[in-house]
Amino acid sequence: LQYTGLRVSFRICSTTMAACCPSSAWPALSPPEDYTPAGSEAALPAPGCFGVGQAGDLNIYTTGTPGAKAIIVCPEVFGWGGRLKGICDTLAGEGYFVVMPDFHRGTTAAGQPDFGAWVNQYTWESHIKNDFQNVFDFLSSQGATDIGAMGFCWGVWALSKASSEGFGLKCGVGPHPSTRLEGMMGGDEAAMMAKLHMPVLLLPAGDDPDNVKPGGAVAESVIAKGGASEPFPEMKHGWVSRGALSDAAVKRDVEGAITKAIDFFKKHM
Question: Rounded to the nearest 5 degrees, what angle is found at the Cα of 182, between the Cα atoms of 178 and 184?
Answer without folding.
Answer: 95
